[in-house]
Amino acid sequence: MSVTSIDAAASAARQGRANRIGILWMVLAMTCFICNDALVKTVLARVPSAQMIVVRGVMAIALITFVAWRMGALVGVSQLFRGWVGLRAVGEGVGTFLYLAALYHLPLANATAIYMSSPLFIAVLARLFLGERVDTRRWIAIAMGFSGVLMVIQPQADGFNLYAWLCLLSTLVYAGRDLLTRKIPVGVPSVVVTLATAAVVVGMAVVVLLFEGWTPMIWSDVGLLALAAVCLSSAYYAVIASVRSGEVSVVAPFRYVGLLWAVVLGYLVWGDVPNPLAWAGIALLIAAGLYMIHQQRAPRPPA
User: Fold this and answer.
1) DSSP line for 104-150
2) Residue 301 pLDDT greater than 50, yes or no
3) Three-state DSSP class for 72?
4) Structure confidence at residue 303 as a pLDDT band (50, 70, 90)
5) Which has the closest alpha carbon to 87: 185, 209, 168, 207?
6) In 3-state terms, what secondary structure has residue 272?
7) What is the dihedral of CA 23, 244, 205, 227, to 10 degrees?
8) Three-state DSSP class for 69?
9) How far apart are the first and last CA of the chain?
């Protein structure tokens, strides 16, 4: 075996380990996102969305700032809204409000199905703009996962309208946000990127809140939003760490894990029982995830 072949094999092995780390971060991120969504769903019955985002966001910013201080990362706070960090944070904020605007007018199943198509867009954009190699096996895993999503959600054709296109636009913005994460210099701590993300989303929500007005809150809702702030902060950090660790087209399909957790929580908290088609979709999602993990563990032939 030539020196070039040995170097190529070693590089592939390092990338495989990085991808597995990225996958673990993405699984953690989606778990935290779904816990946040469950807490927010409870509070939204009594608190307007903009006010909820502001209250939760202020607590999240306080938590992230404390963690950044303990990590000694506040020295990088000058880069909070500069360059790729600031652009990524703006993408997060724009995507969030586009999605919420569409969600208000769309059936939840349709909005979720559109959002869960993001790994497909991410794989295409990663191939075009980052030069990532997306082979046939990776496309198969992504397509299997998205098929499983459609089987679980079972969206209705009459729910697709102008707001569906708005939801699709938000999904594209989110995909672009993940690509921007790869552009952020390695020297910028992920916790600083997390802080910028939370700050921009809260800033946009404050503008909306000025028009909506303030609604009195009960202390139990404040407590639930405090827990949601912990989940959201962890999710922000984990998804950033995931994209910065592994190849975007590899870690992106593990966003589908969020749907699995949503089904579990729906059953445990609200008593929602999936129908047979949904169970088949869940099995397909799990199979797609295991296939992707196996692909990363399997040794690659040297070039």
Assistant:
1) TTS-HHHHHHHHTTHHHHHHHHIIIII-----HHHHHHHHHHHHHHH
2) no
3) coil
4) very low
5) 185
6) coil
7) 50
8) helix
9) 11
Q: How far is CA 248 from the centre of its chain?
A: 12
Q: Which residue has the tokens 């409000």?
A: 97
Q: Which amino acid is at 99?
A: Y
**How is the chain split into domains, by residue range?**
26-297
Range scoring the smallest mean pLDDT among 32-36, 95-99, 128-132: 128-132
The label of the residue with tokens 């030539």 reads 2
Are 146 and 115 in contact, with CB atoms under 8 Å apart? Answer: no
Using the predicted structure, report yes or no on whether residue 1 has a pLDDT greater than 60.
Answer: no
Output the CA torsion sign for 49, 51, 52, 53: positive
Other beta carbons within 10 Å of 277: 12
Give dist(CA 239, CA 255) in Å, integer: 10
Residue 24, classed as helix, strand or coil, is helix
The C-alpha atoms of residue 289 and residue 145 are separated, in whole angstroms, by 8
Which of 85, 196, 107 is closest to 155 using CA atoms? 107
Count CB-CB contacts under 10 A for residue 213: 9
CB neighbour list of residue 294: distance below 8 Å, 6 or more residues apart: none
Q: Is 15 exposed, middle or buried (0-12, 13-18, 19+ CB in 10 A)?
A: middle
Which is nearest to 148 in space by CA: 281, 37, 15? 281
Q: What are 217's two structure tokens?
A: 């809150």
What pTM, to 2 d.p., does this model score? 0.80
222-240 residue pLDDT tens: 999 999 999 999 999 999 9
Q: Residue 300 has what DSSP assignment?
A: P
